Amino acid sequence: MTDPGIALRYLDRITKARGLEELQRIRDELDRAGLSAFGRQRIEEALVNKTGVLMDEIAKKADKIFPVDRPQELRDLGLPKAEATPTSIVPGLPAEALPRSTDELVAPIATPAQARAAWDAYVAIAQAIEDPQDVVEIQGKRFRKKSFWRKIALAYGIDVELREAAQELKDDAKGPFWSSHVVVRARSRTGRYVDGVASCSNREPAKEAATAHVVYATAYTRAANRAIADLVAAGEVSAEEVE
Q1: 97-139 pLDDT tens trace
Q2: Phi-psi region of 175 (alpha: psi -120 to 50; beta: other; left: phi over 0)
Q3: Can you tell me the distance from the alpha carbon of 240 to that of 243, in angstroms, rounded to the nearest whole number?
Q4: Which of 1, 29, 77, 121 is most buried as measured by Cβ atoms within 10 A of its Cβ?
Q5: What does DSSP assign to residue 193?
Q6: Nearest 5 degrees, angle CA 187-CA 138-CA 167?
C-alpha cells in the first residue's frame, strides 16, 4: 500500500476511534507503518486532535457523575461558625502565640474523575508527540530529552521564564573550571507556576571538555525541563540531568 493509502487508513481509524485505548494502539503501530515524515506528522496531528475531543467527552461525563458543588456555609449546615480570630492550639499559650489553628483544610480542586482524566490526557499527549529522537537510553533506562519537554510546554501553553542565573570561574586542585546555577519558572495560563533549579559544571565526568557556554546552557535546560515536568505532574528526570 502506498504512503497516502496507509495514512488515509490511519486517519479513518482515528476518526472512528471511541476510546483512548484505540488511539494508543494506533500510536504504537506508527513505528512499524513505514510512513514518510510528512505522513507521520499528519497522523500524529490527528491523534492529538482526537485525543482532545475524547478528553472533552470524558470531562463532561465526569462532571455528570461527580458534580463539583460549592461548599455550603457552616450556618446552612447548622454548625457553629469558626471564631473570626484564630486561637492558639497549644494549651497555656496566649491567643496571639503560634502555632495557630486556621480552621481550614487543604481540599482537592478536582473530582477523582477529573483528576484521572487530566492525567490520562497527559499520557495520551505525551505518547502522541514523542518521537524516537526525543528519547535516549542511558544505563538501560529511557529518558526524555529537551525536545520532548519543549513540545509539552507548547501543548500546554506553558511559558518558561529565566528567574536567576549565576556563572563562576572556580578553581580547585585540578585547576580552573566553570560552574553555573540557574532558576527557571514554568507558568501555566491559569497562573500556577513551578520553579526549576539546576546546576552544571565542567567537573562533571561528561562535561570535562565543555565550554562556559555549554555549562550554562546545560544548567538552563535541566532547570527548564524540571519546571515543565513538575508543572504537568510528570515528575520525570530528563536526559540532560543524567547524561
Answers
A1: 445 545 567 788 888 888 899 899 999 999 999 999 999 999 9
A2: left
A3: 5
A4: 121
A5: E
A6: 50
